[in-house]
Amino acid sequence: MTSSNGRLRLRRGGGPERTVESREGRAPAPAGTGVAGEARFDDPWYDALNSGWGELDGTGAPASVGPSADRGVGDRAGGAADIYLEVQRSAAFQEVRSRYRRFVVPGVAVFFTWYVGYVVMATTAPGLMARSVAGAVNVAMLAGLGQFLTTFLFTWAYARHARVRRDRAALELRWDTQELTRVVGGGHR
Amino acid sequence: MTGDHQTLALLLFSAFVAVTLGITTWVSRNRHGSAEEFYAGGRLFSPMENGFAIAGDYMSAASFLGISGLIALHGYDGLLYSVGFLVAWLVVLYLVAELVRNCGRFTLADVVAARMSERPVRTAAGTSSVTVSVLYLVAQMVGAGALVSLLLGGTSESARTWTIIGVGALMVIYVSFGGMRATTWIQIVKAILLMGGALALTVLVLVRFQGDFDQMLRTAAQRSGHGNAFLAPGLRYGGDWTARFDFISLGLALVLGTAGLPHILSRFYTVPTARAARRSVVWSIGLIGGFYLMTIVLGFGAAAIVGPEAVRASNAAGNTAVPLLALDLGGGADSTGGTVLFALVAAIAFATILAVVAGITLASSASVAHDLYASLRRPRGKQWREVTVARVAAVGVGVVAIAIGLLARDLNVAFLVGLAFAVAASANLPVLLYSLFWRRFTTRGAVWAVYGGLLPAVVLVLFSPVVSGSPGSLFPGTDFQYFPLENPGLVSIPLGFLAGWLGTVTSAERADRAKHAETEVRSLTGAGAV
Questions:
Q1: Does the distance separating the beta carbons of A93 and B524 come in below 8 Å?
Q2: Which of B330, B399, B329 is nearest to B364 (CA)?
Q3: What is the ipTM of this complex?
Q4: Which of A176, A179, B205, B413 has the smallest C-beta neighbourhood within 10 Å, fewest atoms?
Q5: Which pLDDT tens digit goes with each residue over A11-62?
Q6: CA distance B262 to chain A (A)
């Protein structure tokens, strides 16, 4: 993986706060540049593994030194827990989470309401549902086929949103989090 | 049903059994029984393969024969089932698939237990998963018995008994020898057969009406004797308010139950990443949606070509509508084409039942070995022991399902499936969603959420008209019916969510912030996923 510039960094031992640089200002991969992104992310985890572990060396703060200087040996479990809390607080993670929630919460609300509305209408207002639209096709038939259509649309929209808006950032977070827990936890994760 | 049909159908079915047994032998060679291998097939299936396998796991004979039959008999009301079964996948895609893949290892309980005190949570989630699986399994076994007597051997009792035993024995062999890898390949083969069969019949129906969907609907409405009412809701679920609430209850159970079905959740662990899990759900939504669209054509086509009277005469529940349609489309009862198509449909239906049964057996054996046994045994057991337990559990689950299947063979299949969905939605979904999304959720909340959904669902069914107090119930002679609805979902699903909330706010222990952070980070990024 070559694109280490601009990536989120969770530096350990690099400063007192071990802050997480936000990815703010870096636009998510737009759909247009998706070709390169696609190829790279086609099998992200295996690509990542193949690219080796030496990346952190380039940051100027050798990662293997930081934690062992910071922490005693008995502190390991707490260390891993701290890392997750730290990542959770990081701006990069909160951005991924809010992107996920901002899409999923309204999405679920809309399709669930539409489905429950459809079932309730079908059982309580058969008269309206039986109204003819064209030939033998009535409102009920259109609504039923509409449910199929919206299901396909919602599926497409979710998959696209996840691919374009979430995958890249989530993969980087995964990488960095695992790097930190590996160092702290002695590689058990 | 003449001897020709039977022989050919039996031959085709034997071919399927031979192929699947071959697959089982092939994939189980040189495998050392690691848990990873047995429960998750090594986690290296591609999204497309897993998508087909999910579709194969989900599209049971109840969908293929049951829904088309309901549409053929009751018109539009049958279509409501298809919609519920499909929309349910949006819940899975949006809220469950990726997050569960990231957080868990083999079962639903893994996700919950990561945040909570492990033992009580595992026991609770394992119990509810096994309950759901056994209910679903019994439905499939009963369906297999009914199918065989309808399609092959008249209604002889011994044919049904031996079919149920035979199906059970086969699935135990598949699962205990082949594990997830064999089960997955069986699902894939079955999904391709099922889609191919449905597609061929759909094309033949549309050719019969020169591609005029409108013409087909009008013919169906005319032949049904209900006129245009056949094309609108209300023929089956209209009438009094009890029937209407019953249907709304069923609709809720269908749409929320899928995300809590153990054999569906365990399929997400067979792919390497959450992204692959998402893509397999997209594949399966495409396949399942296409399939249910075809069942609509098949159902109305059966009403238009065969006619509801002929369907009802063959089987009162409509389960033989598609085989009869195939017979007619092939050229009638005495033609070669009719015989071949009929035998093909019958063989596909058997293959469907067999594959679904194998998938559920595997999931429930995982729940027994990985959740129940692992939480009750002494700590520090060796890993190969757990897989051995799982293999034995597959045999045990098979025996239990065969026994209940033989006892319950007169129960309605659609009801049993609806009940399994209702229990899954009440007991499994609340605890799963709370664990993934609620910061303050505690161990007590998790345990209450499971039992608070499971017990009401089961108890309400015991006091429902299904069990007693009406002519069609299990014990028509006695009357202890206190709950009017056949499907408990409308009451038990909210109770499951309520119990989880109540358990959490009343518990003395505070939620562990670090563990919540770990679950949240892992679920959304995939850090530390196996």
A1: yes
A2: B399
A3: 0.90
A4: A179
A5: 443 333 333 444 433 444 444 333 333 334 444 444 443 333 333 333 333 3
A6: 22
**Residues 6 or more apart whose Cβ sits within 8 Å of residue A124:** B244
Q: Do A44 and B275 touch (CB under 8 A)?
A: yes
Please answer yes or no on whether B214 and A112 come within 8 Å at the CB atom. no
Taking only the tens place, the pLDDT of each residue in B156-169 is 677 777 877 887 88
> Is the pLDDT score of A105 beyond 50?
yes
Q: Does B275 touch chain A (CB under 8 A)?
A: yes
State whether residue B294 sits within 8 Å of chain A by CB: no
pLDDT in tens, B180-228: 888 898 899 999 999 999 999 999 999 999 888 888 988 988 888 888 8
**Higher-confidence position of B89 and B375:** B89
Find the residue in A nearest to B230 (Cα): A130
Question: Tokens 């064209």 label which residue?
Answer: A134
Closest CA relative to residue B129, chosen from B112, B113, B107: B107
Q: Name the more confident of B338 and A156.
A: A156
Per-residue pLDDT band at A72 (split at 50, 70, 90)? very low
Taking the C-alpha atoms of residue A18 and residue A11, their distance in angstroms, rounded to an integer, is 6
- B377 and chain A in contact, CB less than 8 A: no
DSSP codes of every residue in A111-145: HHHHHHHHHHHHHH-HHHHT-EEETTEEHHHHHHH
Half-sphere exposure of B324 (CA within 13 A, CB side): 25
Mean pLDDT in residue range B320-325: 86
Beta-carbon pairs below 8 A across chains A and B: 176
Q: State the CATH architecture for B3-410.
A: Up-down Bundle (1.20)
Contact residues, chain B, for A85 at CB < 8 Å? 513-514, 517
Burial class (CB in 10 A: 0-12, 13-18, 19+), B358: buried
Would you call B350 an interface residue with chain A, using a CB distance cutoff of 8 Å? no
Interchain CB contact of A53 with B (< 8 Å):
no
Using the Cα atoms of residue B300, residue B303, residue B305 and residue B311 in order, give the sign of their dihedral.
positive
Cβ distance of A141 and B234 shorter than 8 Å: no
Confidence at residue A1, expressed as pLDDT on a 0 to 100 scale: 39
Long-range contacts of A128-132 (CB under 8 A, 24+ apart): A129/B232, A129/B233, A129/B234, A130/B228, A130/B229, A130/B231, A130/B232, A130/B233, A130/B234, A132/B228
Residue contact A178–B527, C-beta within 8 A: yes
A124 contacts on B by Cβ (under 8 Å): 244
Find the angle CA(A130)-CA(A131)-CA(A135) to the nearest 5 degrees.
100
Q: How much is the pLDDT for B31?
A: 64
